[in-house]
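Researcher: Next sequence.
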Amino acid sequence: QLPQSLRVFYAAVYNTTHQITYTVLRRHG
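Model: Next structure:
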């Protein structure tokens, strides 16, 4: 079980990575 703060941090990193990936795919697709 992850600490709450770590879960929030992980979620933020995941969302940012997903957003960047989506932007790159849109730009090149």
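Model: The CA atoms of residues 11 and 17 lie 10 Å apart. Residues 1-29 form one domain.
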